[in-house]
Amino acid sequence: MSENDLLFNSGILTDERQGAIRPPSGLWGAKKGGLVIVECPQRIPCNPCATSCPAGAILPFSDINDTPLIDYEKCTGCAICVAACPGLACFVIDLAFSEDKALYKLPYEMLPLPSKGDTVTCLGRGGEALARGTVEAVIEPKRDKTYVVHVSAPREFANGIRAIKAGV
Amino acid sequence: MTDISTDILVVGGGAAGLSAAAEAASCGADVLIVEGDLRLGGQLVKQTHKFFGSRDEYAGTRGYKIADILLDEIRENEGKVKALTNTTVTGYYIEDKTFTAMRGEDSCARIKARRTIVATGASERLIPFPNNDLPGVYGAGAVQTLMNVYGVTPGRRVLMVGAGNIGLIVSYQMTQAGVEVAAVVEAMPKIGGYWVHAAKIRRLGIPILLRHSVKEALGERVVEGAVIMELDDKFNPTGLERTIECDVICLAVGLSPTTEILSHAGCRMRYVPELCGSVAERDRTMRTSNPDFWSAGDAMGIEEASAAMVEGRIAGLCAADSLGLPAKMEKLDEYWARLNRLRAGEVGAKIRSGIGKVSRDEWEV
User: Residues of A numbered 102-131 whose beta carbons fall under 8 angstroms of chain B's beta carbons: which are they?
Assistant: First the structure.
């Protein structure tokens, strides 16, 4: 078993695979509001991402164990799925946010809850600190204690930043 | 000693038992739930994470909220369901068809039931290692009870042993509670739980060390650390060891079905590794080889709570039907369709294989 396999087997995405495909880069770079990134590469019985999507962008599952398939043309970056996914495996990244910053819309269930204007540490898939970010908004779309924190941070980490830690 | 009688006795008031009671009561049965804990809800009340599944299994709803939903449903069937909490069924005497139960510390009851649904769930496994009797070595269920029921953190820094769903979820919950998780060790070369649960804790910086296990606990009077060891692909130590500073060692190394009552009732049992222990043979209605006994949930094989709730529905429906009550038996196909969907994935393959070994189309007379 390769080092890469072991890394994946311990919960770190090592490359694109079914259920964890990145959006086409042309569309992604231009889409105001951003596009969803789903990292759900295992067939498990779970479908709230698809049933919660108001735009029909996460395609309906034929089998509840399907991994998500996305019609990026329809995705509005609303981040309802970010709050709905029980596995916290949906993220929205808006590459068109500003010249040098992307807006990362990330699920958050920790304390303390950051506030708008706070500086936070942006973390990669292995918890490594990648960059500092600025909290632009904190919302609770489903009023169920899963928050979606909007953080602006350098856009070169679009394939890296997946979580935040309050403080620096 | 008090004597109690009921149409349907449900032993255990967790995910499966509450679902069975709600379903049987909706058919008009008088149901008695006997629960050893101080309150109903079983493991659901400790589950602060959102459940998977589909809307039918309350996907996206946190476990403790699902317990509330089931309890509300039971209350809707005004007066049909009674519950005795802090009461443990201690045995079944097949010659008298009578259960004995302990209420609290000093009062006893005899219970007679026309039908029984055993929803006793599971108990945690523990693994032996030197000093595992030191205060600070916990089962993951105890950690969840402390934190999520009583609001007490187990310590400051934890070594988690086992990367099944429970180990992964409890690691996440401890992080939410401000407890540092030093590492999760897992003997297999792959996490056993859902990949997304592992990804959730990895991105918070918690290492998951595959092919590693705990070798011994360190400390004189309480846990002060742990030695972990690397394992090769035959699970033998490679000799590589290191010390983890921690004051808690949390064991999440699996569950075993709790089946004593089924054995007392003479239900035909079989050891099925895929279902994590000795479990009862069952037919499509979740009935056992004893025609008065049904069973559902982890007692019938370790699985997710979403499946336990559907099995409970089936057992409740069919036990009520057997009493001649107006049960909508057409729901049975729908419930099986739901179970089959839940078990169709990669993680469900083991369950399907295990259930195949204990399913019976009919019973010999």
Answer: 109-111, 123-128
